[in-house]
Amino acid sequence: MQSQIKQIHQQLTSKQISCVDLVQQRLDLLKQNSHGSVNALLDSYALERAQAVDEKIAKGESIGLLEGIPFGVKDVFMLQGTKTTASSDFLKQYKSAYTASAIQKLLDAGAIPIVKENCDSFGHGSSNENTIFGPVSNAHDPALVAGGSSGGSAVNVAKDYTVFSIGGDTGGSVRQPAGYNQVYGLKPTYGRISRYGLMAYASSTDCVGPLAKSVEDIRIVLNAISGKDVKDQTTYESTEIAEDFLEKASGIKTVGYFKNLLENDAMEPSIKADFMSALEKIKAQGIEVKALDFLDSDTLVSTYYILAMAETASNLSRLDGTNYGNRINAENLIESYAVTRSENFSEETKRRIVGGNQVLSQGFSDDIYLKSLAIRDKLSADFEGFFAQVDLILSPVTPGLPPKIGDSLKDPMAMYLSDAFTVGFSLGQLPTLTVPQGTVTGIQITAAKTDDERVLQFAHLLEETL
Ligand code: GLN
User: Fold this and answer.
1) Active-site annotation holder among 18, 37, 149, 346
2) 418 preceded by cis ω (within 30°)?
3) Active site residue 74
4) Any idea what the CATH number is for the domain that residue 209 is in?
5) Is 187 a catalytic residue?
6) Is 290 within a domain?
7) Domain interval for residue 153
8) Whose CA is nearest to atom 2 of ligand 1?
């Protein structure tokens, strides 16, 4: 099975390359890159770890599969001793006091973090333009956006600057940039990977997710970072997914797709046509394809944004300049909070905090916030019904093509609507993978809760079918 991780592992153990050279090469590529994907390079830290791997190999000791593999970290994950800025003015100088559980597991496996990656500030965005470090441009056409919020991570993987990257996905932030840059990106079942040390955006949908160039690499990284964590009470114990399990897709008999979402006027015709022809190829494999009727995109997007804004307004209330980040002093304490928050948050983040506090406030919460929670319950019941009829659900990743840099900033509403296909699966807390096949922005594969292995199985089948 194709795997960049295994290939590099083999090169390291057979001494075809040294780990220091490997890491230095990738650092050089990151340094020279003009896509804006880097917030900070971890050069001396990474090279020191690479040196230790080389010493082990020189002594004839065996190394683990992930040992010495350079990876990227979205700049919303704590990595002790490094800055974690969330691409914001607020935390521009903030140094992580501890390390996120998922990142710690990778460190324990010997993988080497080489870069903190550009992203939308606090995960707020779908284009990676909401950042103090400048927009990230698409790996394949620099006039276009990289997608967001994990745009830097997707570009680094697409350009081979990192072997894999760790992103965060609240409403599509791993899957959508993966689609825009044509790589794999997984949002696992909510709770499969610990969120401890991932800066909270919307806690009820926040997920840690790997981006990589092959299904096999997604599997390897997922296995390494999954599992119960006492520091995140929403985590659950999962079993390792074996490599040969991916070859056994024969149990997948029926897949569904959302006919109503494809019929929406906002759907880009070429994406729709490519998606329908991908379904035909799947049918030709003897798999039944069923049309499903889901909530409409306006309802999905509104429900997600109401809940995400409400949760982010609560989560970000801790940032007032007292305990974290950049404080601006004014005449009195209340003024200091106000000035600190209005000067340090971006326009997009402020829009979400104001919107979130509005939907939570007395007089509005029943009609807006509680109604959204009720719709979310209905959506979960719908998914249960769907998965009684089909093994998997397939969808395009996005209704449209990646926009030009600058366009999303002029029209936030259009940006929110571009998330129509990703947010529903987030609200349902379902495992969903973007595969870089089928349409120009890829296809999503979704399974029932905790069936992440099925998603990978089908992705492997699609590698050979599309
Ligand atoms: N684009 C969505 C939003 O801005 C999703 C972002 C994310 O998953 N972090 O909320």
Assistant:
1) 149
2) no
3) yes
4) 3.90.1300.10
5) no
6) no
7) 4-245
8) 171
